[in-house]
Automatic annotation (TrEMBL):
Signal peptide annotation: none
Tree of life domain: Eukaryota
Gene3D superfamilies per record: Ribonuclease Inhibitor
UniProt cross-references to Pfam families, sorted A to Z: LRR_At5g56370
InterPro entries according to UniProt: At1g61320/At1g61330-like, LRR_dom_sf, LRR_FXL15/At3g58940/PEG3-like
UniProt-recorded name of the protein: F-box/LRR-repeat protein 15/At3g58940/PEG3-like LRR domain-containing protein
Species of the source: Taxus chinensis
Domain F-box/LRR-repeat protein 15/At3g58940/PEG3-like LRR: 115-259
Length: 338
């Protein structure tokens, strides 16, 4: 008896499904970890576990844990805690390259965050990002969550980024961030001059340093021999700056206001770098008024003999200089490329 056309078609379809299933199973773990999983959010990484039996537990061995705000839409904070706790409980990789939490964190769940950081430290984490999305005006919010002191046990860190948190008191017995190359701090309450000095003392090899909206910084002293990139943005209370950064290559300075009676601006800050001969790139940003100020001395820029790139952003900058036909005198940039 010959098989019916329908049964033949069904067998063919089953064979095609098995063939596609085999293709998924043939992908190597290293390819999945390096090329597929890093480009999708953790939520979809877990969803991918249904594609193949081989993939079912791959996410538990991921060296990168990225908990994005897109994964937690419309979820209450306690539910977010449960999800992250569950993932960490099942995580079986021996090392951790990246641990990133971008969620609604408040002071009441600081104990959970401390536990997460301790977990990351035990895994030898290299990159930590803690981004708090709770707005200060959120009803019921009392204060920013303080950074867990367990963070200072992460002595394998290479990159650290923190947003909208409170800076803690640094423990006296910490080893320090001896491998840290990049540090970015934004909206950090309690980051004053003394705390900054203590932090920099723990980071002897830092190369990239950025501050944004840190309103308690006043008199900055930055002495980091390996620093190559420095960004100071919208830290409006800064009054003075002293630097010892012989390797500095790039400077980014941003302000949100400028008035003629304002004693300090990104231009004043720029003058503090005039003796650093290694600077090759300068970015100045001000969206709050006439820019540059009428009394700005362009010869300050002429001190940067090796300058290759100069970027200036401001509301009235283009309009003002389109009307001026004469170029500033005594300012030359022999190495300027753009």
């Amino acid at each position: 008896m010959f098989p019916s056309p329908i049964s033949v078609d069904l067998r063919r379809m089953a064979g095609k499904r098995e063939k596609h299933r085999d293709r998924l199973n043939q992908l190597t773990d290293s390819f999945i970890y390096s090329e597929i999983l890093p480009i999708i959010s953790f939520k979809y990484v877990v969803c991918c576990s249904i594609l193949s039996s081989k993939w079912r537990f791959l996410w538990t061995k991921m060296p990168r844990l990225n908990f994005s705000s897109h994964d937690f839409q419309n979820l209450q904070p306690h539910k977010i805690e449960e999800i992250i706790d569950g993932v960490l409980h099942l995580h079986s990789a021996s090392t951790l390259e990246i641990f990133q939490v971008e969620a609604f964190l408040d002071d009441y769940n600081s104990a959970c965050v401390c536990k997460w950081i301790e977990f990351a430290a035990l895994k030898g984490v290299k990159n930590i990002t803690l981004c708090n999305l709770v707005n200060m005006n959120t009803p019921g919010r009392k204060r920013r969550m303080e950074v867990p002191s367990s963070l200072f046990a992460c002595n394998t860190l290479i990159k650290l980024e923190m947003v909208d948190l409170a800076f803690p008191k640094i423990p006296t017995n910490v080893e320090g961030f001896h491998y840290l190359k990049t540090c970015y701090l934004s909206h950090i309450l309690g980051l004053n001059d003394e705390a900054l000095q203590q932090l920099l003392g723990l980071c002897p090899l830092v190369e990239n340093l950025g501050f944004e909206y840190c309103g308690q910084l006043r008199n900055l002293i930055i002495s980091t021999p390996n620093l190559r990139y420095l960004s100071i943005e919208y830290c409006l209370k800064v009054k003075s700056l002293k630097t010892e950064c012989p390797q500095l290559r790039e400077i980014k300075l941003a302000n949100s206001i400028f008035r003629e009676d304002h004693p300090w601006s990104e231009f004043k800050l720029l003058e503090c770098f005039s003796a650093v001969e290694s600077v090759k790139s300068i970015t100045l940003i001000n969206y709050g008024g006439t820019y540059p100020p009428p009394n700005f001395n362009f010869t300050v820029l002429g001190c940067f003999l090796h300058l290759e790139e100069l970027t200036i952003h401001g509301e009235c900058f283009e309009e003002r200089f389109m009307e001026e036909e004469e170029e500033p005198e005594d300012v030359t940039f022999p190495n300027l490329k753009k």
